[in-house]
Design goal:
The complex is a heterodimer of chains A (483) and B (172). Chain A is α+β, with helices and mostly antiparallel strands. Chain A is built from 13 helices and 20 strands. Chain A has a 7-stranded antiparallel beta sheet, sandwiched between helices. A 6-stranded antiparallel beta sheet of chain A has the order 14-13-12-17-16-15. The two termini of chain A are 31 Å apart. Chain B is an alpha+beta fold. Chain B starts with 20 loop residues before the first strand and ends with a helix. Classes of the chains: A alpha+beta (483), B alpha+beta (172). Chains A and B meet through strand 18 and helix 13 of A and strand 4 of B. Strand 18 of chain A pairs antiparallel with strand 4 of chain B, so a sheet runs across the interface.
Chain lengths: 483, 172
């Protein structure tokens, strides 16, 4: 059976620019009125871009076989992609405004392999996406696919208040703010000069203009900018997560949300390698967390591992969700960082950090700068208290929690992060000891997962060894697949 | 029938008295030769530079002292580090230890191995050694690599590990 649908609108802007370059040059050389130039240019743009997308559409073919999907595309450079169903970890769909009008979606496949050359099926019908999803789902699970199909209850829904929370906690807003910061100072300088000017003139003209006026202007500008950023990140939150809903279909987790383009993401529960719960400083004020489930990442490209994330969640909901996602073993893997059940790592953890990150660099820098700056170079030593503070803070927030089936590692500096994993999905373990740790009978344990590694530093050597042997026992006696 | 017997932690196999296998003793020589070649390449380049640029001896010493200071530990180190490396093949996993100052012990269960690879450079072949690399999923921080095995041992291990991997997959 051969289907073919096109990607019409999407490619218009994508390829047209490059092919237009010679034409632009021609128009530029053409002697004539500006208006004629623009009209000719616009017509040419449409003709070329439409013909390109028609060609792309015509040459885009895909074919469903018994156990794989074959995609052929490209006008001049032909590309052929063969994706095996059992390699597919999840099917995600996206629906932009135009597609929504026509009832079409774009499918993208999550494969265990590379993240760059993954297949996309633009503009297929929603029903087709569903049938493909159930078909691929049935490859990995033979039963329970049809029963829970449409009647799945939402595990989680986000409303507009959550959008506000996401917007407030958006770290990108802070980054933009930091980038614009220096510009601000310039603005401040200018404002100062203006104010100074006014004051001079006020003195000259005996005309009263308070310094307060200038301060008010600057403050208003700063507040206005902060409000603008808040609005932008709020808008972004609405765009991406509006009407966010989380479902469980049999054993496939599914979320959808988005204002204009609707994103639908799915992940099979058995693909989850680690579960993260994160809380930045803003989320802490709001009493919320961010949760994400990580899948295996490819070994060829050191790409980011794939995530399934819930942008904002309460502690109770997070506990409930963890029990479902890591079922049946995840019950006791408490991830809420304030839990009493976390064990502390050894305080000797601070000593090596202070020594190697704080003291030695500070002394070295002082010695190097002594010649040039003299006593002023002692200022470098201020680095030391900062590092001591950081080390203390990160020691205090470090912790781990062991259960019979898995462990949770807690860490953080300003916020908190806790990562939960199941022993049976571990790929390999290592126990490392430095000279200093040997003297104190301490060791660091590193657990390698398919999604990255988790390290528990500075625990008792005996504990580390016992945990390693236990993890190996769990892995080697496990009859379940890890992926 | 599902069973879930309780496990007493002290009955689990530990690694305290394993019979560690040494890697091939000539591997230290091979590392030394490689490093000696590297150091002499730099020494020749330095010599050539001082001769061509006509740098006086008292200034050229400033280049030679750090070179010698770095070269000596570089050349001696393999004699210390190579005997500290060891591996054990057990029924269900392979364990590798290494390190002098930072000592680490890494274990890879056979039922998590993706693939196995042996490789050797011309220099390795001259000393009759080979490297065994065991890959697991995720691939963070470099997979388990045991270098300096005797060439036939490496090949035997590769076949053995693959066999074990095959068995563990069939059991699933």
């Amino acid at each position: 059976m051969l289907f073919f649908f096109g990607k019409l609108l999407r490619t218009i802007t994508k390829n047209a620019w490059q092919s237009l370059a010679p034409f632009v040059a021609f128009i530029y050389a053409y002697q004539g009125e500006l208006v004629t130039k623009i009209v000719i240019g616009a017509i040419a743009f449409f003709v070329i871009s439409i013909s390109i997308s028609v060609l792309n559409y015509w040459f885009f073919r895909f074919q469903l076989n018994n156990d794989s999907i074959l995609i052929r595309q490209g006008v001049i450079k032909k590309k052929q992609l063969d994706i095996k169903f059992d390699r597919i970890q999840g099917i995600n769909t996206q629906q932009n405004v135009v597609f929504r009008y026509f009832g079409l979606v774009t499918i993208s496949f999550d494969t265990a392999g590379s993240s760059g050359s993954e297949g996309n099926l633009p503009a297929v019908t929603r029903a087709f996406a569903e049938s493909l999803r159930s078909r691929i789902g049935s490859e990995s699970e033979s039963v329970e696919a049809t029963a829970a199909e449409s009647e799945a209850d939402a595990l989680l829904r986000l409303d507009w208040r959550d959008m506000v929370r996401i917007g407030l906690a958006d770290r990108r807003a802070l980054v933009v703010f930091a980038l614009i910061g220096p510009l601000f100072e310039r603005l401040g300088d200018d404002a100062d000069r203006v104010v100074a000017n006014y004051i001079e003139r006020a003195a000259d003209d005996a005309f009263q203009f308070g310094v307060a006026g200038g301060v008010v202007i600057v403050t208003a500008a700063v507040i206005g900018l902060i409000l603008l950023f808040a609005l932008i990140s709020l808008g972004a939150a609405f765009l991406r997560y509006h009407n966010f809903e989380l479902f469980l279909d049999g054993s496939t987790l599914r979320s959808n949300g988005g204002l204009l383009t609707r994103h639908e993401v799915s992940m099979h529960l058995s693909k989850i390698q680690t579960l993260r719960l994160e809380q930045g400083i803003v989320m802490r004020w709001l009493g919320r967390y961010r949760m994400s489930a990580r899948q295996a990442r490819s070994s060829q490209k050191q790409g980011k591992s794939k995530n399934f994330s819930v942008p904002v969640i309460t502690a109770d909901a997070a506990n409930h969700l963890r029990e479902i996602l890591l079922a049946p073993e995840g019950d006791s893997l408490m991830q809420i960082p304030t839990s009493e059940r976390f064990r502390q790592i050894s305080p000797y953890y601070m000593r090596s950090r202070i020594l190697f990150v704080g003291l030695l660099p500070a002394i070295a820098a002082t010695l190097i700068f002594w010649q040039a700056f003299g006593v002023a170079s002692l200022g470098v030593l201020l680095w030391l208290p900062a590092i001591i503070l950081f080390s203390y803070q990160s020691w205090r927030r470090s912790g781990y929690l062991l259960s019979a089936e898995g462990l949770v590692r807690r860490s953080g500096l300003i916020g908190y992060r806790s990562v939960a994993l199941l022993y049976r999905k571990v790929q390999r373990v290592s126990v490392t000891q430095s000279r200093y740790q040997r003297r104190k009978n301490l060791a660091s344990l590193r657990v390698y997962m398919a999604s990255g590694s988790v390290r528990i530093p500075y625990i008792e050597h005996a504990t580390a060894k016992q945990l390693r042997d236990y993890i190996l026992y769990k892995v080697e006696s496990s009859q379940l697949a890890w992926h | 029938m599902f069973q879930n017997p309780e496990i007493a932690l002290h009955t689990l196999p530990d690694m305290d008295d394993l019979d560690w296998q040494q890697i091939h003793p000539t591997y230290a020589r091979r590392l030394q030769l490689e490093r000696a070649l590297f150091v002499s390449a730099i020494a020749i380049a330095t010599l050539a530079a001082t001769l061509i640029l006509d740098i006086p001896v008292d200034k050229a010493i400033m280049f030679w002292i750090p070179l010698i200071v770095f070269a000596i530990p570089l050349l001696v180190w393999p004699l210390v580090s190579v005997p500290r490396r060891g591996y054990v093949v057990r029924d269900k996993d392979i364990v590798f230890k290494s390190g002098v100052i930072w000592r680490s012990v890494t274990a890879v269960p056979f039922n998590r191995v993706q693939h196995v690879e042996t490789s050797n450079t011309p220099l390795d072949r001259k000393f009759g050694v080979a490297n065994l690399q065991i890959f697991t999923a995720g691939g963070s921080g470099g997979d388990l690599r045991i270098s300096g095995l005797a060439a036939d041992t490496a090949e035997q291990l590769r076949v053995y590990v693959l066999e074990k991997v095959g068995v563990s997959i069939e059991n699933h």
